Each structure stands twice: as structure tokens, then as C-alpha cells.
Amino acid sequence: MKYVPEKQPIYGQSLDSLQNRFAEIGEPRFRAKQVLDWLYKKRARSWEEMSNLPQPLRNRLKQEFEIAPTKRILAKESSDETEKLLLEMGDRSLVETVVIRAPQIGVGQKNSRKTICISTQVGCAYGCRFCASGLAGWKRDLSVGEIVSQLIHVCHLEDETTQRAREEIASFDNIVVMGMGEPMANYENLLPALRILNAPWGLNFGARRITISTSGIVPKILKLTNEPEQFRLAVSLHGATNDVREQIMPINKRYPLEELIPAIERYASTKGRMVTLEFILIEKINDTFEQAEALSKIALKLNAHVNLIPYNTVPGLDWKRPSLTRQDSFYERLKRKGVSTTIRREKGHDIAAACGQLKLKSKQSS
Ligand code: SAH
Ligand code: SF4
Fold first, then answer.
1. Do 23 and 116 lie in a common domain?
2. Which of the listed residues 66, 83, 110 is the one where a domain comes to its end?
3. Is residue 124 annotated as part of the catalytic site, yes or no?
4. Are residues 230 and 129 in the same domain?
5. Buried b (16+ CB within 10 A) or exposed e, 138-156
6. Ligand 2 site, CB within 6 A
């Protein structure tokens, strides 16, 4: 399904595309930079605020572009660590963006890091058996403007709640593309969106602080390898052998481990960066001794970091979170093998776990 809004979202425009549009309508190209400065540096919310633009141009922009491509329905603080923004798209689809504050180890709560988890699709077509996002299937891809605007909402929320001057760069530390949807299945909109966030004329947010999480769409991992940016890559592995992975992730039939692992290896060696393997622990499915052994081998071969995530219960699904003892012995086995690994237990603290709970919901149940 494709949704075509009445007006183009302004947050979907790049400097180039806006300059071209201005040239077409007989406006000087430098005006494009002025508009983007208003949006990203001064956080303007209306065309009226753009006082250095001639009034006729402001009127014209107002007719052609939507300055608020999505609507914030509510921002709910679910705990000290996570805050969810529920956003409504022009076609009334709902998308969640999560703000996660993780305290820095050894440093006080005040110096906590702030990570923003963004969505890329409404629903997801990949149907991983443990995941809430995949339950209702795929509805549509988010547009470039809809992806960018999730971060703009976070900036606006900060502008409302803090005293600091607007003319500051974003105050968050990381962006993770781990919300609803499979980012690599919306590559065409994801990359331009991330480039807007990254651009000096945009949010000026470093590519090294942006992590893309994928269930393992091999051709897109290879494509990302050839892009100039140094995005971080996280792969949702969740099974260390084909038979186990296949049971819980249908994508594994299409791209089995013997194709996925070399693709990850290529990404890691080309970019010179450590890749993260996400591994949800599900009782008696993938938390066994054999899986820990197989996962260690993969992680050591890839020199990857393993992030263990005790499964979060999803209503309607039968899977169980393993006991603390089972979680511990899995973790210890990896450690003993020399694998760089982390496990998070506190509710809401873990980024992938907090993001992994996004699903399609109706307005009433939100
Ligand atoms: N489609 C992408 C990104 C979104 S999923 C991907 O699969 O990587 C984001 C993360 O949340 C993934 O690591 C996913 O496996 C995890 N997740 C999904 N459901 C979860 C659950 N019930 N408990 C814990 N983590 C979950
Ligand atoms: Fe889609 Fe990722 Fe959930 Fe799998 S884990 S259904 S790919 S969002």
C-alpha cells in the first residue's frame, strides 16, 4: 500500500532537492539553505517564523510543503528509562518512537546517555515468531519525511521541556533504527532519511552514532557496505544454527547463515567496525548449551559483540523468558570463550528490548 500525502513533507527534502525546486520556481538557490537552517538549527514550526524569507515565498512554501508531517498524539513516560512518543501519520497510521536513557556505567544518572529508537515501516512483513511488530503484518513503508520527523519530534519535545537555547544541536547521543519494521526493506527511504540526519545542513548527527538493525537481508547488507557512511550495523541473529534460526525467523530460509555470516564479515572488515549480534534468549528454543557454543564460534569469527536480550513476553505468543540461572549460564559460556558480550536484565534498560515491543495499535488501546 502506498500513501501519497496532499503536500510533500518538508522534512523529506534534501538541500539538493530543495535547491532544484527553488531554481524551478525562479527563487535563488541560497533560500534553500535558509529554509533548512530554520528547520534544523532554529527548530521553526511554522513558515511564518522564517522572517528572512520574503512573504510571497513563505506563502508558496506553505501551499506546497507540509511543515508538520506527523502529529504527536502522546508522549508517555513508561518508566524512568524509556519514554514512548506515539505519532500519527497523515493516513492515521500510528508509529512509535522511543527515547531511552541508559545510565553510563560508573557515572551518575545525570550523565546518562540518550538513545532514540526510530521506526521505518508501519508493521513488518518478516513475521519473526517472537516479535510484536510482525504480528499484524506489513502495512506500508514510512516516507523519508516520516522517518526524519520522528527525530524532529524528539527535538521539539526537548525545546518545550528544557530551557536551553533552540540553536543547539540535538541533545541525544545515539539513534538506533530498531523500532517497528525492517529498515533494510525500506532502504530507498531509509538512506536518504539518515543522510538528512547526518548532513551539516540537517541535524548534523554523526553516522557513527547511528545503528541500523536488520533481521539479515543479505543483499541490503552488501549494499550498505558500499555506501560511504560509517553507520553501525546490528544483526538480529537469535539462532546460531539454521535449524533453530529458521524456527523463529522465516527470513533465514531465504538468507541462511552461510550467506548471512560472510555478508556481516564483509561489512565489518570494509568499515573496520565491530558489528553487534542481537540474541534474544527464549527458553528451550535458543538458550541451550549447543546454541551458546555455536554462537561463540560465529561471534569470534566475526569479532562481533553479542547483546543478549532476555525475551520480553508478548501477549498472544507462547515463548518464555529463561530463568536467571539459564540466562547466566548462557552468558558465562560466551564469556569463557572470550566473546565480547553484554546482557541486560533491568526492565526497559535494554535498547533492543525496549524497541522490540512496538506494534500496531489502535488509538483506543494506546
Ligand atoms: N527489523 C529489525 C529492527 C526492528 S526489531 C530487526 O529485526 O533487527 C528490533 C529488535 O527488537 C530486534 O533485535 C528484535 O529481535 C528485538 N525484539 C523483537 N521482539 C522482541 C521481544 N519480544 N523481546 C525482546 N526483544 C525483541
Ligand atoms: Fe520484523 Fe524485526 Fe520484528 Fe522480525 S524482529 S518481525 S524483522 S521488526
1. no
2. 66
3. no
4. yes
5. bbbbbbbbbbbbbbbbbbb
6. 124, 126-128, 131, 133-134, 181-182, 215, 236
Cα separation of the two ends of the chain: 24
Residue with the nearest Cα to atom 16 of ligand 1?
Answer: 356
Query: What's 146's domain CATH number?
Result: 3.20.20.70
Average pLDDT over residues 236-263: 98
Question: How far from 325 is each of 127, 129, 199, CA to CA, in Å?
Answer: 29, 24, 46
The amino acid occupying position 118 is I
**Do residues 101 and 21 share a domain?**
no
Residues 294, 165, single domain; the answer is yes
- Do 144 and 268 belong to one domain? yes
**Ligand 1: residues whose CB is within 6 Å?**
130-132, 178, 182, 213-215, 236, 278, 280, 309, 311-312, 314, 352-353, 355-356
The count of domains in the chain is: 2
Indicate which ligand has the atom closest to the C-alpha of 138: 2
Distance of CA 360 from the midpoint of ligand 2 (Å): 13
Regarding whether 85 and 47 lie in a shared domain, the answer is no
Locate the ligand 2 atom nearest the alpha carbon of residue 131 and give its number: 3
**Model confidence at 189: pLDDT above 70:** yes
pLDDT reported for residue 312: 87
1 in a structural domain: no
When mean pLDDT is compared across 1-15, 24-38, 94-108, the lowest value belongs to 94-108
Q: Is residue 33 part of a domain?
A: yes
Nearest ligand to the C-alpha atom of residue 353: 1
Distance CA 194, CA 117 (A): 13
Nearest-CA residue for atom 1 of ligand 1: 182
- Do 59 and 120 have their domain in common? no
pTM of the entire predicted model: 0.93
Q: From the CA of 180, how far away is ligand 1's center (Å)?
A: 9
**Range(s) of the domain holding residue 104:** 70-365
Note if 96 is an active site residue: yes
